[in-house]
């Protein structure tokens, strides 16, 4: 089946027409939550998560049984500029590791009871160096959005998108700076662990990329400063929205991908929650620009969807409480 968009302009129009959560299911879940055997609010943000999930699934008492984790891999022209602590060949090597079951995400997806799929995007053809002009042509960014769109299993009931791409904290920083302003240095962090010299090169590369690509339209920002795995994550997040499948966002790169959607269409991330705040310096700031509060903060800075996969367990627990607890009436417990 072809993607429901053939151009960036089609994709933009699609984003404007995405559905909302079901208000009746949200109201019924709120009502149910108010009757469960606990003091009001005593389960804290678990209560909000369960109600949010119920609204998107369209049922007052939902189950979370079929979570899907998708990892997208891409290579970046800017990697040749010395912006990462690791060489670019690690991207394809890690894809082999994902397929062999040896990466952190393999263990974390299994621990969360989630399926895991891996999509590599033209790894032998890195995007163009964005300090010299746009990272991708329109055809390239649309193809990557489309890979992401089709990777989503419509029968899943939760989506985590993650990425693998040596150098990709540089495009993520450039996207954040283009969308939200401020200085390149405020958005640029150490990624896989660059030293001070690497950080200064990286900040310079981000500044050059912003100067070489002046268009601040959010989807043009994705095309000019992004990468294929970043666009694929955006496509998958949009596909999940169209199918009312809730999404847990992962780290800095995933959140930068999501931010392009949020800035392109109001409400585009209403079906998303933030799984964690990564240790990448500006991830918290980016989440706060999107009005998202992270579920976890464990110092992770791995990518691969790892922080979001961990958060699946917390969301499952929130839904288990919401859907499994007795009401005051059922349990014969006196109210306040
Ligand atoms: O998810 C994050 O916040 C995160 C923070 C730092 C690094 N990463 C991962 O590390 C790679 C990018 O780091 P770098 O230094 O090569 O730009 C890429 O494969 C990401 O999955 C991921
Ligand atoms: C080994 C390694 C694993 C990763 N997983 C995601 N990004 C990564 C970067 C490196 C370097």
TrEMBL record:
Keywords: Cobalamin biosynthesis, Glycosyltransferase, Transferase. The active site is at 304 (proton acceptor). Pathway: Nucleoside biosynthesis; alpha-ribazole biosynthesis; alpha-ribazole from 5,6-dimethylbenzimidazole: step 1/2. It catalyses: 5,6-dimethylbenzimidazole + nicotinate beta-D-ribonucleotide = alpha-ribazole 5'-phosphate + nicotinate + H(+). GO terms for biological process: cobalamin biosynthetic process. PANTHER family: NICOTINATE-NUCLEOTIDE--DIMETHYLBENZIMIDAZOLE PHOSPHORIBOSYLTRANSFERASE. This is Nicotinate-nucleotide--dimethylbenzimidazole phosphoribosyltransferase. It comes from Gemmobacter aquaticus. The gene is cobT.
């Amino acid at each position: 089946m072809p993607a429901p968009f053939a151009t960036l302009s089609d994709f933009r129009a699609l984003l404007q027409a995405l559905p909302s959560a079901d208000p009746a299911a949200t109201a019924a879940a709120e009502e149910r939550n108010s009757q469960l055997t606990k003091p009001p609010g005593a389960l804290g943000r678990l209560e909000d998560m369960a109600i949010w999930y119920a609204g998107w699934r369209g049922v007052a008492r939902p189950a979370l049984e079929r979570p899907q984790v998708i990892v997208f891999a891409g290579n970046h022209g800017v990697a040749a500029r010395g912006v990462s602590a690791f060489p670019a060949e690690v991207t394809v090597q890690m894809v082999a590791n994902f397929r062999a079951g040896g990466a952190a995400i393999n263990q974390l997806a299994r621990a969360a009871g989630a399926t895991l799929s891996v999509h590599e995007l033209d790894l032998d053809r890195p995007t163009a160096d964005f300090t010299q002009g746009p990272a991708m042509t329109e055809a390239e960014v649309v193809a990557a959005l489309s890979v992401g769109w089709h990777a989503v299993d419509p029968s899943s009931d939760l989506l985590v998108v993650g990425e693998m791409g040596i150098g990709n904290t540089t495009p993520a920083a450039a996207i954040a700076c283009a969308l939200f302003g401020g200085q390149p240095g405020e958005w640029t962090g150490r990624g896989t662990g660059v030293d001070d010299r690497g950080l200064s090169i990286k900040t310079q590369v981000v500044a050059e990329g912003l100067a070489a690509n002046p268009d601040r339209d959010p989807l043009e920002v994705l095309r000019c400063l992004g990468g294929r795995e970043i666009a694929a994550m955006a496509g998958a997040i949009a596909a999940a929205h169209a199918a009312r499948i809730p999404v847990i966002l992962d780290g800095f790169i995933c959140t930068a991908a999501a931010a392009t959607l949020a800035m392109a269409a109001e409400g585009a991330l209403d079906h998303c929650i933030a799984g964690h705040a990564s240790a990448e310096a500006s991830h918290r700031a980016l989440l706060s620009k999107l009005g998202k509060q992270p579920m976890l903060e464990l110092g992770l800075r791995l990518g691969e969807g790892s922080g979001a996969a961990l958060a699946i367990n917390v969301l499952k627990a929130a839904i288990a409480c919401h859907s499994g607890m007795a009401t005051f009436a059922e349990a014969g417990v006196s109210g306040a």
